[in-house]
Design goal:
single chain; about 300 residues; alpha/beta; Rossmann fold; P-loop_NTPase; ATPase; DNA_Rep/Repair_Clamp_Loader
Length: about 300
């Protein structure tokens, strides 16, 4: 039920009020820095729209609620392209939106990371949400509001704040280590890993390869530890050692999502230092086809 959701009382109240309106279509933009939490709240709202037991709420126990939780509900579609949805994917989405519901209920379309879409795809999405088909609900997810203004103006904005360390029942070090990412923290709580044990920056390539192959949290933790080790020792490292660190990252992977994760982590843990705005600008450069080896060398030399 809505009352059982942890954190974000304002969003919970919005859910209650919005579900009371019994709309036959709608477009919502959930935004906040924790994408996993945005997804969690999107699924909660989807359950509220489709629950077969409760009206204006969700039970969490009916067949529909359980299938939405497992993302197996026929009238729920989640669109997630790490490189940004393409215009053909939006056209396919428009076709599905105009088609009949599989289960005679509302159709829910959750679209992740809409800021990654190129202009053509964004314009196609805009046309779709301007006049949504009856029974279609679009829940757009993004970590910020840097999106096409016309998409923003045609969406109901819902800000989802990160859960606090207290709400996640962890200490401040753990919370900061994971940057408040609720999904990672919940997974970590099931593991027996010491976050304060050492991991050399020289081993970052090994950690990246392990994470790319398995997506296991243990390797992600080691990436974070390697970044922290480099930052803590950066003043004592020689030029060739900093260049080696950049080369190790680029040798280990060509996945720009991993590059973004590395840059985001560095920006977050060094946010208290001067020059943050410049590093944020460097982060935005990852959207363009730049030479990543040169990018990381420049970044690490400036830290």
């Amino acid at each position: 039920m809505i009352r059982d959701i942890i954190s974000n009382e304002e969003v919970k109240e919005f859910f209650r009020n919005e579900l009371k309106l019994k709309k036959d279509s709608g477009t919502y933009l959930f935004y906040g820095s924790d994408m996993s939490l945005l997804m969690e709240f999107a699924l909660h709202f989807a359950k509220g729209l489709c629950c077969e037991t409760l009206e204006g709420d969700f039970c969490g126990e009916c067949n529909i609620c359980k299938r939405i939780d497992k993302m197996l509900y026929s009238d729920l579609e989640i669109l997630d392209n790490p490189d940004g949805l393409k215009v053909d994917e939006i056209r396919e989405l428009a076709y599905k939106s105009s088609s009949s519901s599989y289960e005679g209920n509302r159709k829910i379309f959750i679209i992740k990371d809409i800021s990654k879409m190129k202009k053509e795809a964004s314009n196609a999405l805009l046309k779709l949400i301007e006049e949504p088909n009856k029974g279609s609900f679009f829940i757009l997810l993004n970590t910020n509001l840097n999106i096409l203004p016309t998409i923003k103006s045609r969406s109901i904005l819902v800000k989802v704040k990160k859960r606090t360390a207290e709400e996640l029942e962890v200490d401040n070090y753990t919370y900061t280590f994971f940057r408040g990412n609720s999904e990672d923290i919940e997974k970590y709580k099931l593991l027996d890993i010491d976050l304060e044990s050492g991991y050399s920056y020289q081993e970052i390539g090994k950690a990246i390869k392990g994470y790319e192959e398995t997506k296991e949290l243990e390797y992600k933790i080691n990436i974070y530890k390697a970044l922290r080790d480099f930052i803590n020792n950066r003043e004592y490292l020689k030029l060739h050692e900093k260049i080696f660190f950049a080369e190790e990252i680029v040798r280990a992977t060509s996945d720009r999502n991993i590059y973004r994760e590395i840059v985001s982590y560095i920006v977050d843990i060094m946010g208290y230092l001067n020059g943050l705005e410049e590093r944020l600008t460097m982060k935005s450069m990852l959207r363009f086809p730049i030479n990543m080896k040169i990018f990381f060398i420049n970044l690490f030399l400036e830290l």
